[in-house]
Amino acid sequence: MGQLRDDTNQTLAYGDEHISFDFNQQVVTLDGRRMTLTRKEYDLLALLVQHAGQIVPRDALLLQVWGYSPAIRTRTLDVHVRRLRKKLGAYADRYIETIFGIGYRFQPFHAPRYFRPIETLAISA
Amino acid sequence: MGQLRDDTNQTLAYGDEHISFDFNQQVVTLDGRRMTLTRKEYDLLALLVQHAGQIVPRDALLLQVWGYSPAIRTRTLDVHVRRLRKKLGAYADRYIETIFGIGYRFQPFHAPRYFRPIETLAISA
DNA sequence: CGCGTTTTTACAAAGTTTTTACAACTCCAC
DNA sequence: GTGGAGTTGTAAAAACTTTGTAAAAACGCG
Q1: Of the candidates A44, A101, A104, B56, which lies 20 to 30 Å from B48 by C-alpha distance?
Q2: Closest to B114 (Cβ–Cβ): which among A12, A22, A32?
């Protein structure tokens, strides 16, 4: 479970309760079933999973998966995230979090959820 | 049934419900009948069968069977795959899978549809 | 040469990616 | 709380890429 890295700190594999990722064979399984991902879908998910738990900015995703500079205006990232979420089924929004105004984050299944401090509540209480 | 390998990990023979492959004699049988394959057809099928269950990229096939570099633009691989499928008859698409954008995969007849997480990190060139 | 084999050509079909257009949502100022 | 600018979600269409196929041309060896 978790991440397995080689001597150059490259992620070799990832696994949690529902998803497993083999970066060598480019094989992803969801609840034991093999996921069929297109190339871009795989590249995108792989990049997110390699930074599991960390926010990956849109700019970084667009640069690394598409080679786009931040100047380029495109919605293809959003569309690909949507298709990944569709294929992730019930766990979609749990696994792929939207960080408004910044980017996306892949959350390992058992990692503590991130909640924004609710200031209004604290003040009114 | 399955694959038989020698001490240098070369596949000597392959067999499943319908196909048998003798790599020494270069004899292939389909449901007990000997298949007549041309040289290139045999080379291509042999390479796929030797990696049964694994995806073999187009580039690898073109390099190993034809000696072509990835730069060369040719459709001969597709044409040969077609002829092989024709000779494989009813099992054609079951045995020779197209992996879009990557290559082809020979699937043993009884291979499970889905794979559990892979522990062994066998890398194929 | 003649014949089987291989490769190319040209187009069709299938699959993938990007764009477009608009809806829904988030944040912040007022 | 409301409104508006900016951001993300979504469905569908358009654009693009890859693979399938039939037929013709080129190859090569007896």
Answers
A1: A44
A2: A32
Strand ranges, E, within B25-115: 27-30, 33-34, 55-57, 96-99, 103-106
Q: pLDDT for B76-89, tens place per residue?
A: 999 999 999 999 99
Distance of alpha carbon B91 from alpha carbon B9, whole angstroms: 28
- Residue A9's pLDDT band, with cuts at 50, 70 and 90, is low
pLDDT band at A11 (very low <50, low <70, confident <90, very high): confident
CA angle A109, A112, A114 (to 5 degrees): 110
Please say whether the beta carbons of B61 and B105 come within 8 A.
Answer: no
Tokens of A63: 């640069």
Q: What is the pTM of this model?
A: 0.82
Cα–Cα dist B50/B5, whole Å: 10
Q: Integer distance in angstroms from CA A122 to C1' C30?
A: 23
Q: List helix spans (H) across chain B.
A: 39-50, 58-61, 76-88, 92-95
In whole angstroms, what is the distance from residue B79 CA to residue B103 CA? 14
C-alpha span between A116 and B49 (Å, rounded): 54
Picking from B100, B102, B117, the nearest residue to A15 by CB comes out as B117
A57 touches B at CB < 8 Å: no
